[in-house]
Specification:
Blueprint lengths: L4 H12 L1 E3 L2 E3 L7 H8 L2 E2 L2 H11 L5 H4 L3 E5 L1 H9 L4 E7 L8 H17 L3 E5 L1 H7 L4 H16 L8 E5 H4 L2 H13 L2 H8 L7 H4 L2 H5 L18 E7 L3 H10 L9 E5 L3 E2 L2 E5 L15 H11 L8 H7 L7 H9 L3 H13 L4 H24 L3 H8 L10
Parallel strand pairs: 5-6, 5-8, 6-7, 8-9
Antiparallel strand pairs: 1-2, 3-4, 4-9, 10-11
Helix pairs in contact: 3-5, 7-8, 8-20, 15-19, 17-19
């Protein structure tokens, strides 16, 4: 065998990893998060920062933090410095409404953002990029707007504080101060720069190329003059998956040039598809995803049929060799959603040793997911059109800094 072959093979594996706001895929080894951190230039989220969050908030760290699911950041230490001095910041996250209902991967940033809002008692803006989905998907403007409102109901069901939360759709809100900031950003970013960051090609229409400023400017408080009046230098913290980082690398580069603070970020790993970690769960493939509208029978069928197993091919071999936890999707999902750390460690230990079988682990996962989805359904059923209107109303929020 040629001595060059391993290097060629390694190069091919590296080239297979694609991570941007519209596409996430990897080779057989899954996403290389260390490589992403180095490539994007963000920082790893170390235990000292997590301990500091717990100390400042007086709350135990969210399981997403203590299990390393939110694993990278930009300037989180500066946000904590501000908070420790008694200053506030605000949160910004979003959703691109391309499906009728959310899947579990969509819930992850909202579950974590709710924890941050409750722990720090800070305001939050949630952007629904219905315009982006019109530009990237085969959707009409009307359908994009309808999906945005439907998705807002699932977001509200996560339990956000209406007094501190503003949800907006781009089609309904962009204009005024928000649009002024968009064109300020647009003038600072060359065509070559945006192609370098996002990988646009000559075949992409100009709507795509002009979109990034729309997602950038919610990180500037002056985009919301009725909500943040007199707080134009308020810092912003963005919880998001790491595939959204390119938007905010651009934003952080531009912000000082137009007189604004750089947004800080706290970034998560991807929630894997049922078929494994070489991609993220996708709304475009219903068999890759478990939806908040699925019933227990559907969840059980999907988990049993599609959840990639790290177990062995036979019971005898499994008892002897145990499971490969690194590739087992059921373990990965329990890592996200099973709250009890001790129970999770017990399951991992017994499964890895071979005393617990794949079917038993999947049965436990079905129970955890079914209970979570049923809780979400009950909460969503209580969300009225009037509640959506309240969250989306453009109005002064006197209790945002209470």
């Amino acid at each position: 065998m040629s001595s060059v072959a391993p290097e060629v093979e390694k190069k091919e594996e590296e080239e297979e990893q694609v991570v941007n706001p519209w596409e996430v895929s990897a080779g057989k080894g899954g996403i290389d998060y260390d490589k992403l951190v180095d490539q994007f230039g963000c920082q790893r989220l170390h235990a000292a920062l997590i301990d500091r969050i717990a100390r400042l908030t007086g709350r135990p760290p969210h399981r997403f933090l203590r299990r390393g699911l939110f694993f990278a950041h930009r300037d989180l230490n500066e946000i904590l410095d501000l908070f420790e001095k008694g200053d506030k910041f605000y949160l910004y996250t979003g959703r691109g409404p391309s499906s009728e209902a959310l899947h579990l991967g969509h819930l992850v940033p909202f579950m974590f953002t709710k924890y941050l809002q409750d722990a720090f008692k800070v305001p939050l803006v949630i952007q629904l990029t219905d315009d982006e989905k019109f530009l990237w998907k085969n959707l009409t403007v009307e359908e994009s707007k309808r999906l945005a409102r439907e998705n807002a109901k699932d977001i509200i069901a996560c339990g956000f504080d209406v007094e501190r939360t503003f949800i907006f759709s781009d089609f309904n809100f962009v204009g005024g101060a928000f649009y002024e900031n968009m064109v300020k950003v647009a003038r600072c970013v060359t065509y070559n720069k945006v192609v370098g960051i996002f990988g646009f090609t000559p075949e992409d229409h100009i709507g795509k190329i002009s979109f990034p400023p729309v997602q950038a400017v919610p990180s500037f408080p002056s985009s919301f003059p009725k909500h943040f009046s007199g707080n134009d230098q308020l810092r912003c913290l963005i919880p998001c998956a790491i595939d959204q980082d390119p938007y905010f690398r651009m934003t952080r580069d531009v912000a000082p040039r137009i007189g604004y603070q750089k947004p800080a970020l706290i970034e998560s790993r991807f929630f894997p598809a049922l078929q494994g970690e070489n991609t993220k769960m996708s709304a475009s493939d219903p068999n890759s995803a478990i939806y908040v509208t699925d019933n227990t029978k559907e969840i059980k069928t999907k988990v049993n049929k599609y959840a990639f197993s790290g177990g062995q091919d036979s019971v005898e071999l499994h008892r002897k060799l145990g499971a490969n936890l690194e590739v087992d999707v059921s373990i990965k999902y329990l890592n996200f959603f099973l709250e009890d750390d001790d129970e999770l460690e017990r399951i991992k230990k017994e499964y890895k040793e071979g005393s617990m079988l794949t079917g038993e682990v999947k049965q436990l996962l079905v129970k955890v997911l079914s209970e979570m989805v049923e809780r979400h359904k009950r909460a969503r059923a209580r969300v009225t059109e009037e509640m959506v209107d309240a969250f989306m109303a453009v109005r002064p929020l006197p209790n945002m800094f209470g």
